[in-house]
Design goal:
It is built from 7 helices and no strands. With 179 residues, it is mainly α.
Length: 179
């Protein structure tokens, strides 16, 4: 009877270990599911935030004077230039969202790739007046949260401006030409 009790105890211990292993695996799976759900909720909150920004951008394009009232833009900046700053910011917001997904948030890699193969963003950043507009947009729209994107845009603007300087003045685009 003692041998049977020892074997039964050993089998009970093995079954308990197997059950504990399954419980641990289930706990890990539940934890992973909770992490995924949390990330999904975080992405949803960020998406909601950016939807709010999109609405604000629309309002600013229609009423660029909001840049003076809400964002503190210096009133010496003309209303037309305020509208240009708002429009550039809208474009950059769109690029940021697109390239964040495309490059999984690695804006350094994005800038490196764009130095090799020019994109629509390069063309926008190559416009000399957009360098100053970008500086103003940084002050009123961007913060440390977007630091990697801001750094990438700074890098690309410098790259494009250097390329323009090296190439010399470009001919003016003709109205009605191919875009």
């Amino acid at each position: 009877m003692d041998v049977i009790a020892v074997v039964a105890s050993a089998l009970s211990a093995v079954v308990a270990l197997i059950a504990a292993r399954f419980a641990l695996q289930n706990a890990k799976g539940a934890l992973r599911s909770a992490e995924i759900a949390g990330k999904g909720l975080q992405r949803q909150n960020v998406a909601h935030l950016f939807q709010g920004f999109a609405v604000a951008n629309e309002a600013t394009l229609e009423h660029p004077e909001l840049l003076y009232e809400v964002h503190g833009l210096d009133r010496s900046v003309s209303l037309d230039e305020a509208r240009n700053i708002a429009y550039l910011s809208v474009l950059l917001d769109a690029f940021q969202g697109f390239y964040d997904d495309l490059y999984d948030g690695n804006f350094t890699r994005m800038a490196k790739d764009m130095k090799v193969q020019s994109t629509f963003l390069n063309k926008i950043l190559a416009v000399p007046a957009n360098r100053d507009r970008w500086r103003v947009a940084q002050e009123i729209y961007y913060g440390d949260f977007d630091r990697s994107f801001v750094d990438a845009v700074d890098d690309l603007i410098a790259f494009e401006q250097d390329r323009i300087t090296a190439a010399g003045p470009a001919p003016s685009p003709r109205a009605g030409g191919v875009h």
